[in-house]
Amino acid sequence: MARTAKTVVYNRIVFVFSLIGLVIAAYVTQSFLRQTSIVCLNSGCEIVRKSPMSYPLGIPVPAVGLAGYAFLSVLAFLRTTSSKRNLIPLILGMSAFGVVFVSWFTYTELFVIKAICTWCAVSAVNMLVIFTISLLMYKEAKK
Amino acid sequence: MNLTGESKFFIGIILATVAIIIGGVFFMSKPEKLLEKSELIPAGSQIKGNSEASDYLVEFSDFQCPACGAFYPQVKSLVNANKDKLSLSYRHFPLDQHKMAVPAALAAEAAAEQGKFWEMHDYIFENQAGLSEEMLLSAGEKLGLDKAKYEEAYKNKKYQEKVSKDLADGKRFSVNATPTFFLNGKKLNPVNFDDLKRSVEEELKKN
């Protein structure tokens, strides 16, 4: 897979959006762990934070996001160090898992918890952007 | 690892992100400022339970607000169950959209003049659906108040200033919905009654 000008730009976008996701997930995770209220546009964040559904297998949902975004950031960074590494499929795979995860959680929020947490919605859109760009990057690299 | 110009560019972004996170951690690790008891429960406040107790719950409420009505029986039983170690102060926060909220607050304060604030408080919440001017006037009689004295205080809005002060204090303490609770000076954000109960019980256990 070649490193074209376009894939470089795509990789930068993936990297920046992963870091944005990382900061959001870090903020929400600390609220989950410290049991402090989340600054939110509505009351949804508190309802979601206090729902047992937000802790699958005992793991707070934002902690999964934190790990996912951290992994994506590392992958995007590693891509800058060598063109030989075949990291694009890994980025695409990770972001695809991310999209599945945020879709599941958005569904859970809407139909089980019946509240929407603004930060989770922002993170879901963020992950969708990363996935779309990863897909474009994958196609571009395959050319 | 071969650091390209692109890698260095990314490292720059990472450092900026780390700086943002450190700034955020520093900002959030500052202890939350608690409100003073004397500010939350000024002299003349309506207090239930043990007024000397170290744990104190303050409720900013509106007699016409449905959520306040829903919290009422549960808060009442919570305070009754812990009446020796907890105090509850009721402060008025009548919302603009509730036209009977101020009259109800004035009626409760007029009843307080005869030592029956909590009886009136309970009566209003228990009959919240039928809240009206007539209902408030007849409540005086039902609670065995001195009718003339009660009506004079109510109709002349004798305690308007007190109600307005409660409302102004609430706004100053960032109250923007009812009911809003403060536990030992800290604003709570309960999503339901069980959540409030949990916070109160955890605080009671500390002492």
Low-confidence stretches of chain B: none
Radius of gyration of chain B: 23 Å
Q: Which percent band covers the strand fraction of chain A? A: under 5%
Strand tally of chain B is 5
Question: How would a textbook summarize the main sheet of chain A?
Answer: none
Radius of gyration of chain A: 16 Å
CATH topology of chain A: de novo design (two linked rop proteins)
Name the overall outline of chain A. Answer: elongated
Architecture of the largest domain in chain B in CATH? Answer: 3-Layer(aba) Sandwich
How are the strands ordered across the major sheet of chain B? 1-3-2-4-5
How far is the N terminus from the C terminus of chain A? 8 Å
Helix-strand pattern of chain A, N to C? HHHHH
* Domain count of chain B: 2
How far apart lie the N and C ends of chain B?
57 Å
Supply the CATH architecture of chain A.
Up-down Bundle
GO molecular function (chain B): isomerase activity; oxidoreductase activity
Keywords (chain B): Disulfide bond, Isomerase, Membrane, Oxidoreductase, Redox-active center, Signal, Transmembrane, Transmembrane helix
InterPro entries (chain B): Thioredoxin-like_fold, Thioredoxin-like_sf, Thioredoxin_domain
Transmembrane segments (chain B): 9-28
Give structural notes.
- Chain B: It holds the Pfam family Thioredoxin_4.
- The complex is a heterodimer of chains A (143) and B (207).
- Chain A has helices spanning 5-34, 44-49, 61-81, 88-113, 118-142.
- Chain A has 143 residues and is mainly α.
- In chain A, helix 1 (5-34) packs antiparallel against helix 3 (61-81), helix 1 packs antiparallel against helix 5 and helix 3 runs antiparallel to helix 4 (88-113).
- The mean pLDDT of chain A is 89.
- Chain B is built from nine helices and five strands.
- Chain B has a five-stranded mixed beta sheet with strand order 1-3-2-4-5.
- The mean pLDDT of chain B is 92.
Q: Which features would summarize this protein structure in a list?
A:
heterodimer, A: 143 residues, mainly alpha, de novo design (two linked rop proteins), 5 helices, elongated, B: 207 residues, alpha+beta, Glutaredoxin, 2 domains, 5-stranded mixed sheet, transmembrane helix (chain B), membrane (chain B)
